[in-house]
Fold:
Amino acid sequence: MNSSTPAISDNYRTYYEIFVRSFYDSNNDGIGDLKGVLQKFDYINDGNSSSKKSLNVGGIWLMPVMPSPSYHKYDITNYYAIDPQYGTMADFEALAAKCKEKNVSLIMDLVLNHTSSENKWFQSACASIGIPREHNPYCKYYNFSTEPQPGYEQVPQYSNWYYECQFGKNMPDLNLDEPLVRAEIVKIMKFWLDKGVSGFRLDATTSYYTGDNEKNTAFLKWLKTEATKINKNCYFVGEAWSTAGDIEELYGSGIDSFFNFPFSQISGLFIPAVRSENGSGVAEKLQSWQTDLLKINPKSIDAVFLTNHDNGRSSGMLNRDINMEKMAAALYMLAPGNSFIYYGEELGMTGSGRDENKRLPMLWSVTDKTGIPNAPPNAEYFVQPDKGVAEQLKDKSSLLNYYIKLIKIKNQNPEIARGIVKAITVQNAGIVAYSVKYNSSTLYVIHNLSTQPVTLTFSKDKYGYKKIIDNLSVSGKKVTLKSDNLTMPARSSVIIK
Ligand code: CA
Structure:
């Protein structure tokens, strides 16, 4: 790159989603904790870009770490503290410092739609029921009504009062129109940005104003503006588990990223293509989605993933077939934008059905149980891969080593995350091919989803490339490119530049 090349935006990262409770238990009480994340930091990023023992992701998303009565902690009692099950504020600060040292972006879940019913704001408000609201500002924090309505529950001990709780009675919805609540939100963001976080994952953005995407977008625009005043680089990724149309509308808020739900899971883009060995239309959809997003927000960054903590594990959708898992990994890890890996996905961990099953303990080893937390309460599913982290690191053909290589390719080639995508039409249903152009540099990403080897004509004169710069295949066989003939082994991927 020459000196006129603009600086690479720091918000382009591969993120690793961590459920702290199930990650690593530092004090042997059965519950994963922040010290555990710190102790396993070398696995996340050891600062050595050619490391063979580290994922070397550029970002971590911590699921909620604030005090909460639930095991998942998506219902918060105190937005300015760490849940004692996970450790102390000093532990969090140590983790944030480590992230800074290794240039890892630390983002945390920010749950703004609702609090816990045990939050003192809600407790105080309920205790003041019937008293004019002016006497207790916390009465204004929630949506109370004297009329029963859908999504409302009765206030305990007050038969003629109801409160909004779209996610259930233990999660009262905050009144996001209330200036006092908005001031509180700004205070919360400042508190954590000052602690060293780089940004936030926004929980349940379509529920802020249930059914009113225009108001959701306006609220998110306000949120982004306020966060930018505190830290101009504050990164947001929003959860809008909704249609492409809704997500596009929400991008109008200026929020950096929204999870690409339409491309995720078994009915999305990546997994069905792998299952059917049919890549028709995949490159075109990547291109048209990116075109649409950039029109709405030129600074938008797609957030692609296979599955998250609310979905069945992707391994099950891929028949627990390591070759299919590798192919799916290549598709979303080499897609434009930020790829989000759910902890354990890189090992082929499984789990479906009730939520607890999707959030099982990280499989550090199948023989050494050190630091492996207990499963969440009520988990009922315990089938796991034959190999954990320790065993897979030693196995050249493991899924984990495939992920490590893919992350490295994405890290080393800024065009993949940041470039403008252009689909290349290939008369072979098993092929996904596109170029990505970033500044003046173009590279080509080509996948063969088929279980058969394929030879394609890929003209050097037409595409102006020099050579293969990286490749990988499920069998370990190399992709070759000779005299415009590109030969791709079964289920393989190549980067040509
Ligand atoms: Ca612990």
